[in-house]
Each structure stands twice: as C-alpha cells, then as structure tokens.
TrEMBL record:
This is Adenylosuccinate synthetase. One of its GO terms (molecular function) is adenylosuccinate synthase activity. Its cofactor is Mg(2+). GTP binds at residues 12-18, 40-42, 304, 330-332, 412-414. It comes from Streptomyces hokutonensis. Its EC number is 6.3.4.4. IMP binds at D13, E14, G15, K16, N38, A39, G40, H41, T128, R142, Q223, T238, R302. Pathway: Purine metabolism; AMP biosynthesis via de novo pathway; AMP from IMP: step 1/2.
Length: 427
C-alpha cells in the first residue's frame, strides 16, 4: 500500500511544500524524484518559515528520512548552503540520502543556461537560470557528471573534458564568452566530494527495501504537470517529468508500488516564466490575487502571473497522472470576491472545447469560457472542518471537485501546517 506521490497539478507553486510537510509526520521517507533547485517550496511551521529548493520538504520532520533520488539534478554548492541554513536553525539533516546516480549541475551548465536564454531573446523560456535544462541535456546526451563520479578523479576529469570541450567551442565561438578551464571545474567538483560522501547511498535499494517492509514512502514532485517535458506546454516547460510516472524512473520504484497520487491544486492559477496561460488576468483582479496570495517566486523573486481557476487543466492533470485525490490550496485567498469566475472550457476558433487541445497552436488561441460562482466574505482561515466553511465556499470546492475529476481530500486555508481542513485521510 504505502507509496504515495504528491505533485503539482498546474504550473508549479501550488503549495507542494506545505502539503508534503503536513504528511511528513505520517511517512517514513520523503523523496524528491526530479528537478533540482529550480523548485522553491515554502513550509511554515509555527512562526518559522522555511524556503526549500533542493531538499525534500520532509527534512523538517525528525522521524522522516529525506531522499534525493536518481532523477534529481544536484548543485552541491546550493545543497550545502541549504543544509548550513537549516543546521543554523537547529534542523537535523544527518539522515539525508542522495543517490549516487543523481546528476550534478556543474558551474558550466549554469553558465550555458544563462547565455542560452539571453541568446533566445524574446523567445526565451524564462528559466530559473539554475542550469537545469543543460544538465538534463547532458544526461540524455550521455555526457553528464554523476554524484558517484566525484569519487574517481581520473574518470571525473575525462567526463568533464568530454562535456566541456564542446561547450567551450560554443561559448567562445557562438556566444563570444571566455572558455571555462577544465582543471578549475574538476577542482571545484572534487572539493564537494568529502562533505557529500556520508549522504551518498543506493537509494533505489533503500526505498524498495523500505516498501517491502511496509514503510510509508512519499514522493514529492517539483514544478507541476503543465511544466512536464512530455505532458506540459512544450517548449515552455522544465526539462524533467514532474508527472506521476517520473516518480518511478526518478526513484527506481515500480508503478505497482504506488497506491495514491495526490495532485496539489491551487484554488486559482499561477505561472512563472513564459508560455501560454488561458486564464491569465492583466487587470485589478490579477493584481489582487498576486497581492493577497503573496504570488512572488521563492527561487527567483519574479512576480507570478495570476489568473482564475482552470478546470480544463485540472481534468488534464487528473488524466495524465492518474490522480486519486486533490489537495486544494489557498482557498482563503479567494475570500472577498462577490463572484469567482471559473474556466470550464475553452473557445478555440469559435468552437467550444472541453479538453486540453493537443495542438500547441490551438492552446495558444484558447479563450476561457467562464462560469461565475458566488463568492463569500467570511474569514475562513480558522475553519477546521468542511462544515465550518461558508456555504458558498463549500459550493466552490464541490464545483471544482466535480469539474476536476478526483475527490478533494484536503483544503488549505492558510500557509501554516495547522491551517488545513482534512476531509479524507491520505495514509
Ligand atoms: P510549492 O512550490 O508548490 O511548494 O509552492 P510555493 O511554496 O512556491 O508557493 C506556495 C505559497 O503559498 C507559499 O508561500 C506557501 O506558504 C503558501 N501556501 C500554501 N498553502 C496555502 C494556503 O492554503 N493558503 C495560503 N494563504 N497560503 C498557502
Ligand atoms: P516549484 O517546485 C514554478 C519554470 C520556470 C520556467 C520553466 C523552465 O516551486 O513549483 P527551468 O529553470 O526549470 O529550466 O525553467 O519552468 N519553473 C517553475 N515555475 N515553480 C517551479 O518550481 C518551477 N521550476 C521551474 O519559471 O518557466
Ligand atoms: Mg514553488
């Protein structure tokens, strides 16, 4: 029974960190399976706020073992500064496990990410500039550097050469930049080896043995369904698979082990970076959602683009992930609107379309068809049960559930751990 996947059902920043932290108390392992420090997961515990980028949100629960799986890309300098920051605040991070097969974000791939974006100009993706895309590209091109490579200097040097030679050609001849010295990169990478060593493990074996012993394992997605390299709004996506299947490849656990897939769904929609977003608002409502929802990126500090809830997207997320449940977040942010528009379908070239179009061009032309739902003005942040919610808030949740295709099993009414209404238990 006990493997669960928790992932973003929209374009990221749905509140995965909070949801993971909440479940952390009842699980034995929390595993990141894709992405890297492009993620920004906020967890609020009491009066303490934590911003996690690479570490699984389970790190804040002492009983829980945090795991960085083989599918993650790791920037060691970011990892160490995150660990230092947590240690300074009294968080014990000694249980962390890191897959020896996880790929390393090398300094040259951070450079390549930034110069490529600059070169793309107005066609840029709006990446987080953390080297994510180039590192996954190296992995697929079979010139990536893995964590285990740090423990064989000769192999490491050969691999850095293989990867960097061609990039230096590109940097100097195409982008007019200075070449990066191979020795300097090798030296920097080797300097991380000793500190990383105690964390490095055969995480595939550890997790499968844990599952055999009926331990509870939670896979925490970064990014979101619509940022998935295969199922998202390509090319305006990240370079990994945040969708449920990514948990299997990114952690080495078979699909038969996964019993529950929970989609984290914001009560409205946000997006950071470029790409289509049918319900995006450019008016006072958009500004209000951004202000009330605190919609500013945890990683890059960019303002998030904001819009109304999009049920077409939610239905799509249910389908491609096989969602069993939703965790609806930030319902409190919608308090105060007299009417709340919800996108129920799109109009594309004069036709009503109920499902996400497979054609990128159609999606770019999609105009939202809205249904207005009655709002509420009562403060809901203290609500503990579904019955505590005002009738119109209950109806809003029920309408979203009906349109989205999976039961809403929890509702966030504030950023804190306790500001959650639990409807069906997850474990
Ligand atoms: P993640 O990337 O999916 O983990 O989400 P982020 O942390 O980037 O963004 C979600 C933001 O919403 C964070 O600031 C959370 O503290 C906050 N948050 C999460 N759930 C709720 C909620 O139910 N209500 C409110 N008001 N804030 C929430
Ligand atoms: P969490 O886990 C929102 C977006 C970037 C950009 C695109 C590609 O906090 O939900 P990348 O650096 O990954 O190559 O950028 O993906 N993006 C995110 N947007 N939340 C995230 O993570 C994101 N991680 C990447 O803004 O549009
Ligand atoms: Mg985030």
């Amino acid at each position: 029974m006990p493997a669960l996947v928790l992932l973003g059902a929209q374009w990221g920043d749905e509140g995965k960190g909070k949801a993971t932290d909440l479940l952390g108390g009842s699980v034995d392992y929390v595993v990141r399976y894709q992405g890297g420090n492009n993620a920004g997961h906020t967890v609020v515990v009491g009066d303490q706020k934590y911003a996690l980028h690479l570490l699984p949100s389970g790190i804040l629960t002492p009983e829980c073992t945090p795991v960085i799986g083989n599918g993650v890309v790791v920037d060691p300098s970011v990892l160490f500064s995150e660990l230092n920051g947590l240690n300074e605040r009294g968080v014990d991070t000694s249980k962390l496990l890191i897959s020896g097969n996880a790929h390393i974000i090398t300094p040259y791939n951070v450079t390549v990410d930034k110069v490529t974006e600059r070169f793309l100009g107005k066609r840029k993706i709006g990446t987080t500039g953390r080297g994510i895309g180039p590192t996954y590209a190296d992995k697929i091109n079979r010139v990536g550097i893995r964590v285990q490579d740090l423990y064989d200097e000769s192999i490491l040097t050969q691999k850095v050469e293989a990867s960097l030679d061609i990039k230096n050609q590109m940097l100097t001849k195409l982008y007019n930049r200075r070449a990066i010295a191979i020795e300097q990169v090798v030296e920097e990478l080797l300097s991380y080896a000793d500190r990383l060593k105690p964390y490095v493990a055969d995480t595939v074996l550890v997790l499968n043995q844990a599952l055999d012993q009926d331990k509870v394992v939670l896979f925490e997605g970064g990014q979101g369904t619509l940022l998935d390299i295969d199922h998202g709004t390509y090319p305006f996506v990240t370079s990994s698979n945040p969708t449920a299947g990514g948990a299997c490849t990114g952690a080495g656990v078979g699909p038969t082990k996964i019993s529950r897939v929970i989609g984290i769904l914001k009560a409205y929609t946000t997006r950071v970076g470029s790409g289509p977003f049918p319900t995006e608002l450019f008016d006072a409502d958009g500004d209000a959602l951004r202000r009330i929802g605190g919609e500013r990126g945890v990683t890059t500090g960019r303002d998030r683009r904001c819009g109304w809830f999009d049920a077409v997207i939610a239905r799509y997320a249910t389908r491609v992930n096989g969602l069993t449940d939703f965790f609806l977040t930030k319902l409190d942010v919608l308090t105060g609107w007299e009417q709340i528009p919800v996108c129920v379908a799109y109009e594309i070239d004069g036709k009503r379309v109920e499902e996400l179009p497979y054609s990128q061009t159609d999606f770019h032309h999609a105009k939202p068809i809205y249904e207005n739902l009655p709002g509420w003005s009562e403060d809901i942040t203290k609500a503990k049960t579904f019955a505590d919610l005002p009738k119109n808030a209950q109806a809003y949740v029920k309408a979203l559930e009906e349109m989205s295709g999976a039961p809403i099993s929890a509702i966030g009414v504030g950023p804190g751990r306790t500001e959650t209404i639990e409807i069906n238990s997850f474990i």
